[in-house]
Design a protein that fits this description.
Length: 116
């Protein structure tokens, strides 16, 4: 099965290899799936944001630029994100962006994306 040409990784390794290595129940992964540069350069449909809060523990976490750009380009790309205090990936339903908007697209308070 061919790899999606819009799918890259933070390490530059193949998406299949990165997926296979994402097995640890706690801690950050060695690498993450992201949209490739060409796809992210098409523009963002949501604001670019790096800082978010885990509503369960109240801790703020900052994500890398490539992951933040992937969220801004395609807010449906991820279903979970990492909390530095809990040292684990948790569902987006547990997080809000620093501006107060929920990270989870299914939340009633989530604002619809702008066309790119």
């Amino acid at each position: 099965m061919p790899t999606d040409p819009k799918l890259c990784t933070t390490s530059g390794e193949s998406p299949d290899k990165v997926r296979a290595e994402q097995t640890n129940p706690t801690g950050q992964h060695k690498a993450y799936l992201i949209l490739c540069d060409e796809e992210r350069e098409k523009g963002f449909v949501k604001p670019y944001r790096e800082l978010y809060t885990h509503n369960v523990c109240g801790t703020e976490t900052r994500m890398s630029r490539a992951i933040a750009e992937t969220y801004a380009r395609d807010p449906y790309f991820y279903g979970a994100t990492f909390c530095v205090h809990c040292n684990a990936h948790k569902p987006l339903t547990e997080f809000t962006w620093s501006d107060g908007e929920p990270m989870y697209p299914g939340d009633p308070a989530w604002r619809q994306p702008e066309p790119a």
